[in-house]
Records
---
Amino acid sequence: MVIHCCHLEGEMGNKLKITSYNTNLAGEFWVLSALNRLGIEAQLTLGNKKSVDILVIQNSTIYTLDVKALADRYDWPADNIKVLNNPNHVYIFLTFEGKITDPQMNPSVWIIPSDKVQPFIKRYATRSVVSRSLIVNNGSKYQNNWKYLIKEEL
């Protein structure tokens, strides 16, 4: 596992060491909190190299969520993103907008089913990314799209 690190100045002026591991955990727990606040039954999965971070059971439907969290305003690495023909596997792209050390800051969130993520992927010679600019400019219907996971029983 590669851990990228940065030093940030915290609210109290202290230096904070934030790694990509810390950022991903913060993102997963933020999403888990939001889901529970919406009354959605959600469980965090445990493990290091996993493609499912959160399981959601909603009206007899199981959703698998893969949370991609960033501390700053960058593209999301996408080398491990699989475009599936499965609307129940959902990617949650989250960014703390450069303010991860501010606990009062809510991140920007886009909730995109795996079968809809392809238009936001850019491929380069050595890597692939989910483009922040494409999501911001063309993905407004996915921003804070919590209703996708809240389906009423018929």
Note: The first helix runs from residue 20 to 37.
---
Amino acid sequence: MKIQIKKSAISAALIIGLLLAFSISASAQVRSLKGKVTDENGDLVVGANIKIEAVDVYRLFPSLKTDKKGEYFQILGNNQTGVYRIIVRKEGYRPALKEQLRPEIGEELITDFQLTPGEDQKFHFEMTAAEKQDWDKRYAEQQEREKQRALWSKEVTARFDNGIALYDAGNYEEALVEFSAALEGLPEKPPEIRSGPLSRMGDCFLKLDRNEEAAEAYEKAIELEPENASFYAQRGVALGRLGKIAESQELFRKSAELDPKNAAMNFYNLGVTLFNSSEMDKAVDAFKQSLESDSNYAESYYMLGMSLMNDESKIPEAMASLKKYIPIGRNSEQVQIAKEIIAAFE
């Protein structure tokens, strides 16, 4: 009887040892991903959406959110080799992506992110076939513009770059001189190489409230580069200031058609011109179209709310729009106005 007890005890000890060994071995095979998400100031970003995908053999892991420390953690499993990517999104910030992540066996791979303010957008692999086609088209156009700029002389390039620096510093008169000089230094052919300085001259004219000259500069730029959506939008701004509302609206629509990615901004601009001409119902439609294109386009929530205030029956809808604006609005004065309006009605 005693011998049996000893054998039983030895067997139990053996089993426990084997189980422990197996447990240690198993835990050593676990791979995991973890990290912290901060903004450009180094502050923690709480509640950011974390999407983790295995891309060699596709697998989508359950969605995560960063905790109160701005951190996330995902166990990948035992012996689960592979290549991973992580996509981070948070309202009010541009999405962030890290690819080709290959955690080793037993490794806790640290992958941190820093988000910058901006609008949400799709990465190339998230796009539909039509969206990819549009993106490829715009990329090809950008490459073509780079080729055109390669034809500029060093002097023209220097004047143009100096113009940009002056413009960014708020010296619009001086910038205009530089862009004009750059334009004069360019050959007549190929004509499209002249659109860059012309459009930047238009930008200066807008800032100087010389709207007739701005509209003329953008018109010339459009003639040279008719597929550039931004030229239509900027000419629309100039004509809107001149009270040419119908023409302005058509230009914003054309810009949205040429560049669906920036449709939110173009419909916003259209809404502003309608608002300023007291066409409130049409303005409401334009701001709603802007938000359909990009639900994070903050200023459209504000202007939608202000437009709806014109109709007493739509006050609740206006309040809802202003409430959506407050947490994502970047114009502190408008945020305060929105808060005061809401407080007055509640």
Note: The two ends are 84 Å apart (CA to CA).
---
Amino acid sequence: MDTTTMLGGSRQRTDPPDPREAIEGQRASSGLRAAYLLSAVIAVLMVVASAAGLWLHRLYQDPAWATAAFRGGDLATLLVAAPLLAGALLRSLRGSRRAHLVWLGMLAYSLYNYALYVFGTAFNDLFLLHVALFSLSVFALGLGLANVDVAGIGRGFRPRTPARPISGYLLAVAAVLGGMWSYHALRFAATGKLPQTAFPASGLHLIFTLDLALLVPSLALAAVLLWRRRAWGYLLGTVLSVYGAAYQVNFILATVFQANAHVVGVSGFDPLALLLATAFLLCAALLLGSLQPTTRTPAINAGTASIASRAPGGSVMATTATSPSTRSLTRLLRPRPAAGRRRNAARLGFGAFYLVTATFNLTVTLPDAAAPYKHIAHNLAWPGVDWLLLHLVVPAAVPLTVLLVAFEVGVGVLLLSKGQRVRLGLLAAVAFQVSLAPLLSWYELGNVPLVALALVLLARDYDRSVLDLVRR
């Protein structure tokens, strides 16, 4: 039986849906549904495993270099990887293609990370939990890649996407990493000598194996396909850039923990790791920024229900029923009256304030990063929060301060831009200022005017950035 739709005031006949497309859609939906379910379990188990690794000091029955590295990795997973995975999963369920790629990137992080825990640690109380995380990550990533709309995502990237510069970077990382590990392996075969590092032979063997078997081929394949502007190249390039940025944070924190454990040959801060993390983050931002927002209802959508009909030419017309949570977000971001001069001036001053605090933390706090956190822990922090500062924040003071500076710069840039970006910057500022309460005790009263100002500024829209105002 044929169906019709109203188009341009006339009734036009539509073709009935192809049964084979319906079957393929059901298979993809079931595969994605399984991957999403596994990912939710992974996010929860990540938090449990990471918290246990940080709080149970005798959990890892390994040499000092390995124990410190795993505990640093636990901190990175708890603060960065698990929240990113959970947030990307929720956004992907609501149809965001950008979040979908971030979700796949964090699954790649989980797979590589827990391969190290499974194959690189001695037996400990969390062995089965680490095995479960590794296994779940393998299947979730496999199902996610097998059921992703590669062609649709590939078409979503704008023609001016800087594919080749990013491809060159990924290929350079693959070549350097593969070349170094292959050289050391061949040198060992010829002379029996391994590189002089803080890691024993077993640790080098595991790192060489995972990188040469998984990471280097993946980076090289993504680089070649991205250079040729293939859909799989855009997808793999974005996924691996997200993975690379997240795992470099893991490596930085692992190095900080090793330095605090006085592991011989390890310095407290590795500038190269920070440079690589920044480069991967830039690649991910460029690729995700070049991917156009979702224009269709996803196959699985937790927040919306879609009713679609096929229009002439094969296009799909859909209406969407929105969930209460989506309606709340819509109300929060709905258009408001345009801001006048005073609010614009206050908004620009607020943005400048964040850039000034970022400059202060970069030039004054960072050189002796641990000292301010120790002072806060001993004099200001709430009971219990002082312990967290001394045992979790102080050992990683340098990279966490770098992340703080990056956050403050990001908020400042958002506040100085226009449109919805200003609203997001104000919301981030409110959340940040409120979250400081457990650290600052009664000094938090000084943040009350800032929170009040941000709430007042949220009542207006800002249609001009600081550059627009300067050009007038």
Note: Residues 333-471 form one domain.
---
Amino acid sequence: MPSSKAARYPEKLYKFCAFSPRSLDLLNRERIYYSDPTTFNDPLDCNPVINDDLPTRDLVQLCLVWTKAEHADVPIGSPLVHDEGREVDGTADAFYRRDLTNDLTRLLRDELGASGVLSLTARWDSPLMWSHYADQHRGVCIEYDTTWGNHTNLRRVNYNTPRSISAADLLDWKVHGSAEAEARVREAYFFAKALDWSYEEEWRYIHEKHGVDHATLKVTGVYFGLRCLPIVRSIFMSVLPRETTFREVYAKRESFDLDSRWLDRSEEISMAQATSAYLDFADQINAAKRNID
């Protein structure tokens, strides 16, 4: 049934992709590929720094508690294990705090880096995204409906926030069990991005693991790029459910803006089949001519 919380996000969100047998198979089987955040094209994305806004003793406590929880089998003497009673000062303390912060960064990456990310956008009509993510307009843009279900892991990307996580929030989360602190950490880890990317108007769905899994959003439409071949259109139309809508993207006259028009499924499939039959016949004629020559 439709979600009562749909107003928190757009009713439609979009995913640009190149055409491939794999992308078509995922759509046909109602599966989604959740990306590994460590492989994003922006190395600053999902790669925050930790602000060591805690006294050294609290940093040590945080490392000890987190290490014992996440790495129970780590032997004493490992770089991830720290002596709670260690006393340092001056320059030595600065180096020690740096080591503690580096260990916290690794622990955070171990915990959250295994998650999967589905990157979506609020717009289908960006020429730049068609070029970057849809094989230079030869691919497609998938339309997802957000009004069905309760998508608690779907959030808008924030382009106006620091690329840092407070060590105090990590302490409140891991040592004191604060759900509010955990939410702030996850927000900074997954949803903070540089202002230069704001044209994408990105939304993200965070999954428990990366890789292929069941679809969490319903596909309701497909937009075909300016250079998308008729046979590709026909394949999508033949495979996806009948209630799926299909639209052809075109450029508006005297501008760089994009618009779209509705496509008739049966007409497109018939045209593609006719074109295919003509090409097969043409190949036979050309082969016969070569034999005669």
Note: Residues 265-292 form the longest helix (28 residues).
